[in-house]
Structures are given as C-alpha cells and as structure tokens.
Amino acid sequence: MKKFASALLAAALVLSLAACGAKTEDNTPTDTKIPVIGINQYGEHPSLDNCREGFIAGLSAAGLTEGEDFIIEYQNAGFDDNINIQIGQNFSANNVALMCGIATPSAMSCYAAAEDKDIPVVYVAVTDPVAAGLADGGITGVSDKLAVEGQLALIRDMQPEATTIGIIYTLSEPNSVSAIAEYEEKAGEYGFTIAAYGITAQSEVTLAVDALINQGVDCFSNLTDNNVVGVLASILEKTNEAGIPVYGSEIEQVKIGCVASVGIDYYVLGSQAGMMAARILTGEKTVDEIPFETISQYSMYINSEALEELGLEVSADIISSALDTSK
Description:
Blueprint: H1 2-20, E1 36-41, H2 46-61, E2 71-76, H3 81-93, E3 98-102, H4 104-114, E4 121-124, E5 139-143, H5 148-158, E6 164-170, H6 174-186, E7 193-199, H7 205-215, E8 219-221, H8 226-229, H9 232-242, E9 246-247, H10 251-256, E10 260-263, H11 266-281, E11 293-294, E12 299-302, H12 304-310, H13 316-321, E13 323-324
Helix pairs in contact: 1-3, 2-11, 3-4, 7-9
C-alpha cells in the first residue's frame, strides 16, 4: 500500500509540473525569464526547514530579490526515496536554473538528474560530501559534519560514570555511516564504547530504541540522520520513561527535548549555501569554482527542563557557555 501511494504521488507530481511548467510556492506558473531555483527537501522537520529558510535568506543577503532575481520552486519528498528521485528529474525536465538539495538523499537525486544538463547543484546538510560522491563536478554546498569529539567530551562531562553510548543510524545514508565510523574511532579516547544499531526504514527506529535500552546503554547520541530525527518525539517518549538521556546534534533537537548538544545552527548553514547559490546565479562564479565548505564553528546547547526531568547536573562551565533552549 505504501509503495502504491508513493507511485500515485509521484505520478501526480509529474502531471502537475508537466502541465504548466515549474511553479512557485504559491503555485504561480514560472513562464518568465526569471531564474527558477528548484529546492528538493528530503522531508519535513525543523532542522531541514531551517536549512530552506536560511538558504532563501542567504540569497537575499547576497542582494537578490525573490520574484525579481529568482523564483523558488519548492518540493518536499516526505522522506520517500521514489518521490525524492522524481522531484530531481522533474526539475531537470523543466530546466531550472539551479537545484538545491537539502539533506544527502536529495542532494544525490538532484545531482543525478542535473548531470546531463549541466544544471548547477548547491546542497545543504550533507555530512560527508566525499563519501557521498558530492565533492566536485557541477555541485557544491555546505557540509554539516558533526563535532564528534566535542559531543563525546560533553557527554563525559555530564555523565562521568557512563560507558556505553547508543546510536541509531540508517544503513543507506552515507553521512550516517561516516559519522558512525568517526564515533567508533574516537569513543575510546573518552572512555566510551558505541552500541550502533543500523536501520533500513523509519518504521524501525522505535524498535531500535527498545533494543538499545534493553542492552543497557547509558545514553543516546543522535546524528543528523533524517529517519531518526523525523521521529525524535517518539524516541524521547521511550527514553524519558527509561530515564536515559538523549544528546542531540543541533539546536532543534535540543529544543524538542534532547538534554544537550555540541552542534550547529542549520539556519546559518542554509544561509551560507544560499550565498553560494547567489554567486552562481549572478555569474560571479561557476559552480566548479566554488569548493564545498564545512562549518567549523560549533555552539553548545542545553535544555534545562529536560536535564531537570532526568536528574542530570551540569558543570558551571557548561551553564556559562551554553544556550538554554528551554528559555
């Protein structure tokens, strides 16, 4: 039934775009000479929404005006890989001026669809562009590589007696596989072992949570894995009941209820990518002249309400340097 519904949705998407060309967010036909930017967002959750909003803000910060210098054609794949691929193909068929892929799967589908037409692609939130094959050749963007060592140090500071960190990740996401490898490489330096649980679909996430809780992990650490983040509320319901802290990888996860994070602001990430796209649209640079960038500055976030609920105390250093997202 799920595959049938996905096929229907894909067919509807093809027909709607083919009937009158690309359309804007308010469904206005874009039969003008204003460059169209096709945004393919893999799914809807606050982190990816912030990427999109930041991307559009970055275009404006670079001096471009929406409706005059560019038009946005926004599509959301709903975490469906078939729809995700179809969106990229439709953007290509409609000869958009530039594609923006938000999250690794969407960046990959845009890149595959754009290659034969030399349509530039700018991505947001690709953790490991090299591993994903998105490092060069008609594509650029901004990586959301995790601050793994900073996160391990934070967990050690907050849970001095902890030994095992549980991490759930999608086996088919190159960014998640890369992050797991780095966690496993560096965890020993901080006295941890990693209990990694690979999944193939979002429906398996809560079962993975149960398995890791039963295994006796001391805490969970989230990646920027879309399948996992998409059901974070359900994860927290289980872990809070078990009294096990969950550490996020960026600010929005901490707002939802993770206890803390050393991470990035996805709005800033998107803005940086938007400014890259502006340079390409104006002809200042070609996409091949702009190497991908990695955010190097990270912030610390805490959720004092979540900390209190789980009975966790934090050091004065953390309190003084972290942003409390619950206030």
